[in-house]
Specification:
two-stranded antiparallel sheet; alpha+beta; 26% strand; 256 residues
């Protein structure tokens, strides 16, 4: 397939990504195979978005994606879910490394080329958050967000409302633990605002970890996030990346 010709059928900025798939369910290199004219033009236009000079690198087909954008485990998770698992991805994000919002749509593509799988990646930029795009998320997510806003907006007892919201989030995600953690690096203090644990979990409350030294662990989080707003860990590769990037945080998280 001529991926350059195929990508030109998309009006938004679009590229084609390849993901190396291994028999054990993990993935390898993620590459930008081709892009349409608006996407390729973007390599010379990112300076208008106040991005770094790294994004002016001339495009070379089939290059590892990190040649052009910062390595991001969340982006890699999107690529894996789309190209290998066959999921359609739609999300609206505001990376801390940019001063704009990105509306992202990803579609799985065929045919496969041996252990190489493909997906399309389309993006649109907005300087400010667009409520219309935000409201186009899955109905259950929109309903949960609305429910949370109502509970917090009408709260008489703020702590009770936050506790209820945290429990709702834990229930919705079926997580073992959900927590809001407060940090004050100026005063070197940290505390748990609210948390919820599943009844059958073996995890401990975050309060078991909080002491005078825990602020040093919290101080490592920003570097580990790498400009993203979150980290998704859903396989052994994710744990291994965390171990390499932040062994101090990995130790209690992995083995409790």
């Amino acid at each position: 397939m001529d991926f350059f010709q195929f990508s030109d059928h998309f009006k938004p900025m679009t590229c084609i990504l390849s993901v190396e798939s291994f028999p054990d369910g993990t993935y390898g290199n993620i590459r930008i195979v081709a892009g349409n004219k608006p996407y390729l033009h973007g390599f010379n236009a990112y300076d208008a978005m106040d991005a770094s000079d790294k994004f002016k690198t001339p495009f070379i087909p089939n290059s590892p994606y990190e040649r052009y954008i910062p390595k991001d485990p969340n982006f890699e998770d999107f690529c894996y879910r789309c190209a290998i698992l066959g999921e359609t991805i739609h999300t609206y994000i505001h990376p801390e490394t940019f001063n704009f919002w990105i509306n992202i749509t990803m579609l799985p593509l065929g045919p496969d080329n041996g252990n190489i799988r493909y997906c399309s990646y389309s993006q649109e930029f907005t300087k400010h958050a667009d409520a219309t795009i935000m409201s186009s998320l899955a109905p259950e997510i929109s309903a949960a967000v609305l429910k949370t806003c109502i509970k917090l907006r009408g709260a008489v007892d703020f702590q009770a409302a936050v506790d209820e919201v945290i429990q709702d989030i834990r229930d919705m995600t079926d997580a073992h633990h959900c927590c809001i953690f407060l940090t004050d690096f100026a005063q070197r203090k940290c505390s748990v605002l609210s948390e919820a644990l599943r009844k059958d979990t073996s995890l401990l409350s975050m309060k078991a970890y909080v002491n005078d030294d825990f602020i040093d662990i919290a101080a490592t989080w920003n570097d580990t996030l790498g400009g993203s707003t979150n980290i998704l860990i859903n396989d052994e590769r994710g744990w291994e990346d965390l171990r390499k990037n932040n062994p101090i945080w990995f130790q209690p998280q992995r083995h409790e």
